[in-house]
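During the second half of the funding period, the structural biology subgroup turned its attention to how the target accommodates small molecules. The most pressing case was S-adenosyl-L-homocysteine, which had performed well in the primary screen but for which no bound structure existed. We therefore specified the complex as follows and requested a full 3D prediction, including the ligand pose.
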Amino acid sequence: MTANPYPLGLRLDGRRVVVVGGGVVATRRVPALLDAGADVLLVAPELTPALRARADAGRLRWVPRRFAPEDLDGAWLVQVAIDDPAAAESISVAAAERRIFCVRADDRTAATAWTPAVTRHGPVTVAVLGGGDPRRAMTIRDAIRDLLAARLVPGDAAPTHGASAAEGTTGATEATGGRQTGRVALVGAGPGDPELITVKGWRLLTAADVVVADRLVPGLLLDELRPDVELVDASKIPYGPSRAQEEINQILVDRALAGAFVVRLKGGDPYVFGRGGEELLACAQAGVPVTVVPGVTSSIAAPAAAGIPVTHRGVAHEFVVVSGHVAPDSAASLVRWDAVAGLRGTLVILMGLKNLAAITDTLIAHGRSPQTPAAVVQEATTGTQRVLRSTLGAVAAETLAADLRPPAVVVVGDVVGALDG
Ligand code: SAH
């Protein structure tokens, strides 16, 4: 019976790790080493295209030949990713002489270190060793990953104070008045289907103390919040009474300054007609750290859900997303409808139903053909999705006749029929 392995988390930042081999095993092993900040030296006569791309990008150093013992000079760890047993054994011997731990893909019993099956959940890393059975390790790892994703593990910490640059944090990170400042995440919830939130958005949502949600946010995402989470409904019904944006900004800032982790959950993507920028500025001005998590925007997802690609080879090389909430002839309009009418590609109009007749008239008046295919997609990606296919000339009247209502996206362009058989 062999002794138990002793688990460790290696901090490889800036430390040399030698990987021998340039095939599929190395391709799978290298990303986690780079993610850990290791100084990777790759020794192999040939590389897979994925490894080659990393070498070309300067992310690792490639020595294009077979292994030589001097390659291990200065290394802290070596990973053997070749399947020639004699060559692998000679690397093991060279590593043992230098007291360098050696992972062997070809023969785990000959290795001095084993790589566990891993799942990552924000700052948490779960590593599983299967007692000599890698498949058992993966099965257990998968089960733990499912538990984490389903939020069944208590004490799932909010992101640590002052997130990494990779999270796109803006704003001050100092504590205010001696009190620990909380933080705000502006999270895109996706277009409607609760499964269309990003993995990161979901993780932050499950860690929130306070959730400030839009009207367009999928209700099922909110159903699943812990009972102790404070839910603030920032509903803004179009053209109806609306809670002032300043008030929402104030709630975000106040709760965060009181120490809470606040998730501002917004339909689609936070920066597509979502006023996310104003909220970010308000937080930054108050010294509250902000993270932005992009979302799947309805401007692309709603056409897709109706079988309409926003671009298609040979059909459209551009797509333009426009807000229709201001009438084209209004002094407040910032859209050059004449220029938009001159485009050949795809036009996606959000918040456009109320002004649809005026918008389509304006596009036609400036030269877009009334025969151009057009579609309206209401409540895309939800169980109540409705799709109307029409033409630019007829879509406004048909939308009225069919009683289509917001939220809906209007798509204009030849892509509307591009996938029709
Ligand atoms: N930030 C959002 C857009 C906010 S503006 C995003 O990126 O998707 C609100 C408009 O988005 C609605 O009036 C409608 O035009 C569109 N919209 C949002 N969700 C939609 C859905 N599920 N189906 C169709 N249109 C939608």
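Two results from this model are relevant to the next phase. The chain has three domains: 16-115, 159-293, 299-417. The two ends are 64 Å apart (CA to CA).
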